[in-house]
């Protein structure tokens, strides 16, 4: 049974996550203060520290929550796929659709999630994203074993090429959206081009 205190805790955490996602996406991570996040969420900086340890912890939690939902959908579509290549088409189409439906999280994944921060020279890669990459890599290897992918290219190379292609097209779409320019292509065009590339890697 959920207590009122637990409900309050979850609500406060969710508000902080939503506020952080909005402000990081609109203003940038570096330009967003913990005070601004607290104001936007109707919470406090002490609550942000309590749940996430600070601003970087909040950003990582946003990434993990975003990839968690996608990875749940991935598991379902993997079970329905006929072979490795079909599974890749299904789950990377899910990624493209997810980014198209949530521009804020797409911006954070594609831009804030790839930046070097401070002097650490580390890029923030969430556990959810790393799991997604491992699934894509495993499915490519499965496709090479079941004959749906060619075997003369290393699975890691194919994984990087596929993710890079999908991310690059979504990135151009998001940038045009932010600049209030006409979109260079539709969501369906992205999926069509991606499918053509993946199917071109069949034996």
Structure description:
By secondary structure, the protein is mostly helical. The protein has 9 helices and no strands. The protein has helices at 4-27, 34-41, 45-52, 55-80, 84-101, 103-110, 127-146, 155-178, 187-199. 28% of the residues are buried.
Give a quick set of tags describing it.
203 residues; mainly alpha; 9 helices; 73% helix; disordered N terminus
Percent of residues in helices comes to over 70%
Give the N-terminus to C-terminus distance in angstroms: 54 Å
Mean pLDDT: 84
Radius of gyration: 19 Å
In short, what is this structure?
By secondary structure, the protein is an all-alpha fold.
List the SSEs and their pairings.
Blueprint: H1 4-27, H2 34-41, H3 45-52, H4 55-80, H5 84-101, H6 103-110, H7 127-146, H8 155-178, H9 187-199
